[in-house]
Design goal:
With 324 residues, the protein is mainly α. It is built from 15 helices and 2 strands. A two-stranded antiparallel ribbon has the order 1-2. Helix 5 packs antiparallel against helix 8, helix 7 runs antiparallel to helix 8 and helix 9 packs parallel to helix 15.
């Protein structure tokens, strides 16, 4: 059995139920919106975020409730909205090996559909008086936006250090993982100790997740995005930050010049990737990723051992060993 299937095994019933409820949460009396929604549902991804909601809820109580399902739907609606908007911003015409929404229905429909999903997510909370869930997801959306804008700001003049990088990935990636895990737990209990422990687990899991994602930029694996895309877009991630701070001034100038001036030159980008590898950038980032993983495990071990805790541990291992 694949690792991803092992993770899903304890929540197989919940995920099946969720798929029906998720589509219902997107429904509209406008035919075009329903066509786009059908397309989204049929091209579903790994469903990592709903999985986290259900696993964290069942970590506390074996029986989930309707609020848990709503939490999972809200998270997936918001996450999908951000992906649709990202594809427009990045002018990307492909998502998970399929055409993106903007490729099929053009930018205007894609932006409006993303806005529609965002509003449906917020209304799902409001209409059911889930104001605690609304607060969690609203804070996550704000943090994600701040993180992306902070990254753009820092990338413009290549002025980014390691603490800036951690702040960026905490906001743009870990914040939504935190929202997933907190929504799962808070749909079952308001126990502050449990919420604090799961928040720490989620934070460190999210940090490890993004570092792994950034490491893909330096691999030759076919992962759905071109190798070196971060360098071409002048995004400075942890492997590069480490090397910039550890090499001689002349080499640092060459790296900065390569990113600023020659970032569209495929040959130069490849040289930069090799230079970062040779100077320990990937090893350093992998070590940091494993530090976050170990911190996440510490928080998880505060919960009673059961098949749901085991599945969350498997999820964590999957995140740092995934190939895409």
């Amino acid at each position: 059995m694949k690792q991803s299937e092992k993770i899903k095994e304890p929540i197989y019933h919940e995920l099946n139920e969720f798929e029906k409820k998720f589509f219902d949460s997107m429904s509209s009396n406008i035919a075009l919106l329903n066509r786009v929604s059908h397309f989204i549902v049929n091209k579903k991804g790994k469903q990592l975020r709903p999985m986290l909601v259900f696993l964290c809820a069942k970590l506390i109580n074996k029986e989930v409730n309707e609020k848990t399902y709503r939490g999972a739907a809200v998270v997936e609606l918001i996450h999908t909205a951000t992906l649709v908007h990202d594809d427009v911003i990045d002018e990307s015409h492909e998502r998970r090996g399929f055409f993106s929404i903007n490729a099929l229905w053009k930018n205007k429909i894609a932006v409006l559909f993303g806005d529609y999903l965002l509003s449906k997510g917020l209304l799902l909370c409001i209409n059911n008086n889930d104001f605690d869930l609304l607060k969690i997801i609203s804070e996550a959306v704000r943090e994600m936006s701040e993180g992306e804008i902070l990254q753009i700001e820092k990338s413009r003049d290549l002025n980014i250090n390691e603490s800036d990088y951690y702040e960026i990935i905490r906001k743009k990636t870990a914040s939504l993982i935190i929202a997933c895990c907190r929504m799962g737990v808070q749909s079952i209990t308001d126990n502050k100790k449990n919420i604090k422990s799961i928040t720490k687990f989620a934070l460190n899991t999210g940090m490890a997740f993004q570092i792994k994602d950034d490491l893909f930029d330096y691999t030759d694996q076919k992962i759905g995005k071109p190798v070196g895309i971060d360098i071409r877009e002048k995004k400075i991630t942890l492997p590069m930050i480490y090397v910039l701070n550890s090499v001689k001034i002349r080499e640092k100038k060459w790296l900065i010049n390569s990113i600023k001036v020659h970032n569209k030159n495929k040959k130069r980008v490849k040289e930069v990737i090799n230079f970062v590898k040779e100077n320990g950038g990937l090893v350093y980032a992998e070590n940091k990723m494993n530090e976050y993983k170990n911190e996440a495990l510490k928080s998880l071990k505060k919960f009673e051992k059961n098949k749901f805790r085991d599945a969350l541990e498997l999820t964590l291992n999957y995140i740092i060993s995934r190939k895409l």
